[in-house]
Structures are given as C-alpha cells and as structure tokens.
Amino acid sequence: MIWFQLQSLVGSYPLALRGLGMTVALSGISLVLGTILGFALGVLRTSGSRLLSSAIGLWVDLIRGTPFLVQIFLIFFILPELGVELDAFTAGIIALTNLAACFICEIVAAGIRSVPTGQVEAALASGLSKWQRMRQVVLPQAMRVSLPPLVGQYVLLIKDSSVVSAIGLTDLTRVGWLVVQRVPNGLLVFAIVGIGYFIVCYPLILLARRLERRMSAAHGEVQL
Amino acid sequence: MIEFRGVNKWFGALHVLRDITLSVEPREVVVVCGPSGSGKSTLIRCINGLEAINDGALVVDGQRLGDRTTNMTGLRAEIGFVFQAFNLYPHKTALENVTLAPIHVRKIPRAEAEASGREMLAKVGLADKFDTYPAELSGGQQQRVAIARCLCMRPKIMLFDEPTSALDPEMISEVLDVMVGVAEEGMTMMVVTHEMGFARKVAQRVVFMDAGAIVETGTPEEFFADPKTDRSRAFLSKILRH
C-alpha cells in the first residue's frame, strides 16, 4: 500500500518541482521588492515629516493587525471590482511584498532609532548632508542591529507565501492539496511539503544565527 | 569670528543661556569653565547649530545663525567639534573616520584625502593605527582620532566640549598636548574644560559661567590669581584644592 503510494508520489515530482519553483519565485521576488520598499519606509518613518511617519505607522499597524489571508482576498477580489485586473501571481506578489515591507519597515526603523544620538551629532557637526548622514553613518550601524531579525523575517515570509494557494496559485502547498487527491495519504504528502519548505528556510535560519553571533563582536562591519 | 549678542536660550521653562554677549577673535583661544549645569556645553553647541538659540543674535564666520540665507551644512564644515564621548564612527577604521567628511563634504579625491588623513593621524601620534577600529583604541587614542577627524576638514574654528572629561587621568595629557599643538598653529578655539593648566598655557581668555550667564571674563593670569566674584572664587577653590 505504502509502496504503491510512494511510487505514485515519485510520479508527481514534476508537479512538486513546479510548486517549489512557484514558492521560491513568489518569496524571492517579494522578498527583494519588500526589502527595498521596507527600507525606504523605515527611513521615512524615522526621518520624514511627522505626518508621513504617522501615516506609515498606521498602515504598518493595519497590515500587522489583520490576517494575511484576508489581505490576499482583499487584493485579489476587491481590486478587480475597482477596475484593476490582476492575475493571481501579481496579486500574490503585491500582498507578500506589502506584508514584507511593513515588517521590514519596523525592523529598519528600530535599527535606526538604536543608533546613538552622538553618532548623528558627529556626522552633523562634520557637515554631512541628511542623505550622507543616513548612508554613511546611521544605516551601516542600524544594519548591525537589524540584520538578524531581517533574515528571520525572510523565513516568516517564505512560510507565509503558502497562503497564496488560497487564490489558486500552484505553489508548494497547493501541490500538496492536488497530490493528496491522487494519493490519499495526507500525513505522508504534507510531511514532504513541510520538508520542501524546510529545505528553503533552513539555510536562512542558519544565516540568521550566524549574523546574530557576529553581531556580538564589538567592532567592524557586518560582512555577509 | 564668533559673536554672541544678547543670546538667550530655554529648555522648556529652564533658562539655560542668559543674555550671553561674547566675541571671539580669529586665532584666539577661549577657555569656558564653570560648575556643571552652568550652560557652557550648550553655549558652544549653539555655535555650530547643534542647539538653536531662542533670542538674540549669533554670528559665526560672518553668517548669522537662524537666517534663511545661512547654509548650516556649509558652515558646519568650517567648524570642528570635539565631543566629550569622542563619537567616532564604530563601523569605520581610524583612517575612514578622518577621511569620511573630506571625501563626501569637501569632495576631495579619495587618494588625496587618505594621504592627508594618514599625515594628520601621524601628527596626533597614531601613525600605527590607520586601520584600527575605534573599539580597539584607548580613550585617549580615540579622542586624538576625533581631533584629527576635525583637522582633516581644515576648519576655521575648533570647538571642544569637555574633551578630557571622559578620559582616565593618564590619558589626559596626550590629548591636551595635541590641543596645545593645534592652538599654537593659530586655530580659533573655544574649549569647555576644567583643565586649568591648559588654560594657563594657551588661552588668551577665560570665560567663567554660572547658572546660564557669563559671570566673569579675563586673561588666565587675572582669573586664576585674582578672581573677581565670589562665585568664581568658590569654583576655583573647589577645582584647584587638590
């Protein structure tokens, strides 16, 4: 029985690979976009106008305070009502990027706030412009604090990407649902799905741990 | 070079600078002293705009602070500021610390900035520490890097905010020696310090502050030998007793 199920599982490996590819593509693209957007938001959150900062804060709280599944449904089903036609992949990217950006914004903002005032004053006193102070003095030091939680956040993002199966994208989780209809052994199928996610996430978990250890070194730059 | 005219400043209800009128000439070295909380740090932090004044006029290098036409970033580049806590950039080596502003503010080519950075670090006695990070330097060494960082910008004015107060006693003289050297080269300097030996050696004037006001001004000889007010006498007897 098990032998037969295993055989038919092996037969569905092209589908599984496609699912894994979809998960990696979704997470990868939104991870990169979300990081860029999240950094921009984090910098604006700490150094923009007060109005802008509160607006960003409100949006971040809104996103952090609602289930991701609900956000995806809103984007996928509500936006077309407003005349914005989206395919499921684009909707998934938008939802995941937005989610990542909001969490990364708070991580980056916390890192920036952790840089001592004296550092900003020294940069200010030497005549560096606002952008130069941020780029040369504040961000490199903020990164030392932000990098470990940032990588941790990537892991969460990859796992959250499983929710996009709800709007019909054939990612790793949805492949699990499809296969389980052919091979009626949920435990086995989803154990394999779990292993798939773990293989993608584990290197990042190791990286986060390494960065955390490196951070305890008192000096020098964080080297990747 | 620096002119305070009736400057007042409040932190909320606290009146930290009271009717300050003081003028510092080019190449002059002025030492500011007084009990803690007397406003001396605030006084020199106003000069490069780290603190804003609320009332009166403050003119630095011909530019009036707070004017819309005054380019603060440009003015700050002409003023070196040495902090009590050094405030070196911990993620940059000694050489990177001293070349950052010359490269990005003065737009000096990297190679040239590094050459003069090395020269400046050698001048403050740190020729073997170019590639060392601040955390690996002693307090005295860090403060000398901080002074070199200011000097690399070729400033017109140098401000020192209690530069030796955070140092172990045996490191104070190495920093003061560098400061004496800077003064002897003709730099315009305002120094908040209780190092009376330094004041005697290089200062043209000592300004004594208490409760946000300038109480007494005089040459070091006058001030130390014959303080005019009770408050300055009480202050001097406390710091010179030992």
From TrEMBL, chain A:
It is found in: Cell inner membrane; Cell membrane. The chain crosses the membrane at residues 20-44, 56-79, 91-112, 186-207. One of its GO terms (biological process) is amino acid transport. Its main location: membrane. The keyword Calcium does not apply. Residues 20-208 form the ABC transmembrane type-1 domain. The keyword Cell membrane applies. GO terms for molecular function: transmembrane transporter activity. PROSITE patterns: ABC_TM1. One of its GO terms (cellular component) is ATP-binding cassette (ABC) transporter complex. It is a multi-pass membrane protein. It holds the Pfam family BPD_transp_1. Keywords: Cell membrane, Membrane, Transmembrane, Transmembrane helix, Transport. Belongs to the binding-protein-dependent transport system permease family. HisMQ subfamily. This is Amino acid ABC transporter permease. It comes from Phyllobacterium endophyticum.
TrEMBL record, chain B:
The keyword Transcription does not apply. PROSITE patterns: ABC_TRANSPORTER_1 (PS00211), ABC_TRANSPORTER_2 (PS50893). It comes from the Bacteria. Transmembrane segments: none annotated. Keywords: ATP-binding, Nucleotide-binding, Transport. One of its GO terms (molecular function) is ATP hydrolysis activity. CDD domains: ABC_HisP_GlnQ. The keyword Transport applies. Residues 2-236 form the ABC transporter domain. Pfam families: ABC_tran. InterPro entries: AAA+_ATPase, ABC_ATPase_HisP-typ, ABC_transporter-like_ATP-bd, ABC_transporter-like_CS, MetN_ABC_transporter-like, P-loop_NTPase. Belongs to the ABC transporter superfamily. This is Polar amino acid ABC transporter ATP-binding protein. It comes from Phyllobacterium endophyticum.
